[in-house]
Amino acid sequence: MIITNHHDLVNYQRAGALSTQILRELKLAVKPGILPIEIDRLAESLCRKNQVKPAFKGVYPANPYQYSTCISVNDVVVHGIPSQTEKLKAGDVIKVDFGLVYQGLYTDHCFTVAVGQFTPASKSLVTAARDAVAAAIPLAIAGNTTGDLGNRMQTIAQNNGFDVLKQYTGHSIGRTLHDPPAIPAFGEKKTGTLLEKNLVLCLEAQVVTGSDQVKVADDGWSVKTIDGGLSAMFEYMVIVGEKQPILLTPTLDWGMIV
């Protein structure tokens, strides 16, 4: 979506602020011994309280998603169905992906944290994933390309000894959850789609410790690393600017351990 008027700009800023507020509450709920489904139920409750709809629930009618969040643990990279049986334990690396619909406008963003404690390996992975996506944000200016963003994310991930998934990408967003263009977390500079001022983007990267090959679990949603390696994911929403972007979901300074 390209924002064309002040009304939509203000509403998107409000949507981003509310979505960030709810995501923060979900982060505070992450602790050893909690079931992921409990975090999901909290998200649903907070959406009701704020009179907004969960963005993910019901997407893809052929296999409609039934939850308000995607909660992906350890080798589950993305689209994890919140478990009703496996409690979080110390050392788990958990990704919480959430979005809402406010005044017809969609949000979509994600954080990764370690539960209770990092290992040296998991801390390095999560830090690299956050830094990779954060470093792409300043490049979301008119005249740059999707390849510029992807190249920045891929370079930082690989310079730290990790890789990025190629099968899943960031995207534009607006009155639907996924709009074109796609924003891969890899690519060559000055290639891809030219960024236009006021285009709303979800910048994301799924960063993995080993192979970048994945498989979809039997539940039809959860995407797992094929080699069982750990994964981390961050996603931030921005509006493309003329000289600098507008950050809609300011979660860059969040701690990475709970």
UniProtKB/TrEMBL annotation:
SUPFAM superfamilies: Creatinase/aminopeptidase. GO terms for cellular component: cytosol. Removes the N-terminal methionine from nascent proteins. The N-terminal methionine is often cleaved when the second residue in the primary sequence is small and uncharged (Met-Ala-, Cys, Gly, Pro, Ser, Thr, or Val). Requires deformylation of the N(alpha)-formylated initiator methionine before it can be hydrolyzed. Binds 2 divalent metal cations per subunit. Has a high-affinity and a low affinity metal-binding site. The true nature of the physiological cofactor is under debate. The enzyme is active with cobalt, zinc, manganese or divalent iron ions. Most likely, methionine aminopeptidases function as mononuclear Fe(2+)-metalloproteases under physiological conditions, and the catalytically relevant metal-binding site has been assigned to the histidine-containing high-affinity site. This is Methionine aminopeptidase. Gene3D superfamilies: Creatinase/methionine aminopeptidase superfamily. Transmembrane segments: none annotated. Its cofactor is Co(2+); Zn(2+); Mn(2+); Fe(2+). Substrate binds at H79, H178.
